[in-house]
Amino acid sequence: MPLYEHVYLARQDLSQQQVDELTAQYKGIIEQLGGKIAKAEYWGVKSLSFRMRKNRKAHFTLLNVDAPPAALSEIERQERLNEDVLRYLTIRVEEHEEGPSAMMRKSDRDRDERGDRGDRGDRVPYERAPAEAVPAVTLAHSFRGTELGKTWSSPGKRSAFVGHFER
Questions:
Q1: Could you tell me the pTM of the whole model?
Q2: Which domains does the chain have, with CATH numbers?
Q3: Could you give the C-alpha distances from 88 to 6, 31, 165, in angstroms and in order?
């Protein structure tokens, strides 16, 4: 039987228990149609890069599936009918990845790197320089390549002021 990786996104207002029930429902359908789930990973609630059906976050779940194509088409049909599922993606693979997926390894790595932020080393507290030591910078000198009396514009872009008045 072909191998698939199937990821689905569920609405953010569902509880993790409801997402687990959805996963169990899809597992049951696949097993009824002669397939099996090699691995199911819950990736947690993650932010979306754009809004989907008025949701800014979603529950992400990965299923490694070993099933006939008919089982996957039935799962996708069920997901299209279910209002709790925002999106899904099924990819056929040559073999399943052993161990945790890249998303799970990433979260473990991030957790290990930051920890409790105790590894910052010895730092000297920041001290402000006295006001006399800081030179006064004029607006004309704060722009890159600007001289007094010349207007500033970036190459290839229109100035925000020009665009506003030319409407």
A1: 0.62
A2: 3-108 (3.30.70.60)
A3: 7, 19, 45
3 phi and psi angles, rounded to 5 deg: -105, 140
pLDDT tens, 51-110? 988 999 999 999 999 999 999 999 999 999 999 999 999 999 999 888 888 888 876 665
pLDDT at 36: 93
Closest C-alpha among 15, 13, 12, 40 to residue 25: 40
Residue-wise DSSP of 48-110: EEEEETTEEEEEEEEEEEE--HHHHHHHHHHHHH-TTEEEEEEEEESSPPSSS-HHHHHHHHH
CA 9 from centre of chain: 11
Task: Give which of 36, 46, 32 is closest to 78, Cα–Cα.
Answer: 32
